[in-house]
Amino acid sequence: MANALFERCRGQFFVMTGPCALESRELALATARELARIAEELDIPLIFKSSFDKANRTSLTSFRGPGLRRGLDWLAEIKDATGLPVVTDIHLPEQAERVAEVADVLQIPAFLCRQTDLLVAAAKTNRIINVKKGQFLAPWDMRHALDKLRDSGNTDVWLTERGASFGYNNLVVDMRSIPEMQNLGVPVVMDATHSVQLPGGQGGCSGGQRQYVPVLARAAVAAGADGVFLEVHPDPDSALCDGPNSWPLGQTRELLATLRSLWSLTHD
C-alpha cells in the first residue's frame, strides 16, 4: 500500500494529522473517525498520525503512550474502522519491521534524523519514510539522511520541516527550507504544530504557541509545501502530550479547507 499511497499524495495537497500520542483507544478512534469524515468531505488524502511511544519527552515522569504492542493494536483497529492509512514514530532499528506490519508511513523523529541504523532499518521495510529535519540541521544537510535511505533501497521519502533552534526554548521557521529540501528531489511537509513548540519552555515539559499554527501552515503552503503535518486533539488543554502546540480538532476542518484552497492557488 505504501507505494500506492506515495503516488496518491504526489501532486496534491495531503495531510498527516492526529493526537501526538495514543492516550486511549477510545480517544484515538473517535478522533480518527472525525478526521476521516473531514478528509472525505474535503477530498484530501489524510494519514492518521499518533505515537505508541514518545521516547524523547522532557521528563522521566511524562506520559509516553501505551507501548509498542498495544499501540499497534489500536492503530490496526483505527485503520480497519476508518480506512485511513497511519503514520507513527519509530525510535529503534528493531522496531521498524514490526511497526511496518501496521503503519503505512514510518516517521523518523527530528532528534534521530542522523541515526544511520534507524534509517537503514526503516528503508528496508519498503514503507514510506517521513524524516523530520533536526532542529540542529540546515535544510541542505538533510541530503545525507536522504542518501542513507536511497542507498538502502527506498526512494519513497518525505522530508518534514519542523523549525530550527533559535536560542533557548524557542524555534523559528525559515521558509527557504521548503524549496531547499524540495531541490533534493522529494516532497516536503510542514509540521505546523511542532514548529510553534517552546522546547522545555514549561520547565519539566515543552510549551507552545498554538495561536500561530494557522499562520505557519498557511505560510508554508504558500511557499510551496507539498503537505502539512498537524497534531490535533479534541481538548488540547487536557492532552497528555504536546497540548500547548496541538490544534483543536473542532477547528481542524476549517483550517484544512483553507490550506487546500491555498494549495490549489499556488500549485496551478
Secondary structure blueprint with pairings:
Layout: H1 2-9, E1 14-18, H2 25-42, E2 46-49, H3 68-82, E3 86-89, H4 96-100, E4 105-108, H5 116-123, E5 128-132, H6 143-151, E6 157-161, E7 164-165, E8 171-172, H7 177-182, E9 188-191, E10 197-198, E11 207-208, H8 213-222, E12 227-233, E13 247-248, H9 252-267
Parallel strand pairs: 1-2, 1-12, 2-3, 3-4, 4-5, 5-6, 6-9, 9-12, 12-13
Antiparallel strand pairs: 7-8, 10-11
Helix pairs in contact: 2-3, 5-6, 8-9
GO molecular function, one term: 3-deoxy-8-phosphooctulonate synthase activity
Domain DAHP synthetase I/KDSA: 12-259
GO cellular component, one term: cytoplasm
Please tag this protein with its features:
two-stranded antiparallel sheet; 9 helices; TIM Barrel; 268 residues; alpha/beta
Structural write-up:
- With 268 residues, the chain is of the alpha/beta class.
- The chain has one domain: TIM Barrel (Alpha-Beta Barrel).
- 35% of the residues lie in helices and 18% in strands.
- The strands form three sheets. It has an eight-stranded parallel β-barrel with strand order 1-2-3-4-5-6-9-12, surrounded by seven helices.
- α2 packs parallel to α3, α5 packs across α6 and α8 runs parallel beside α9.
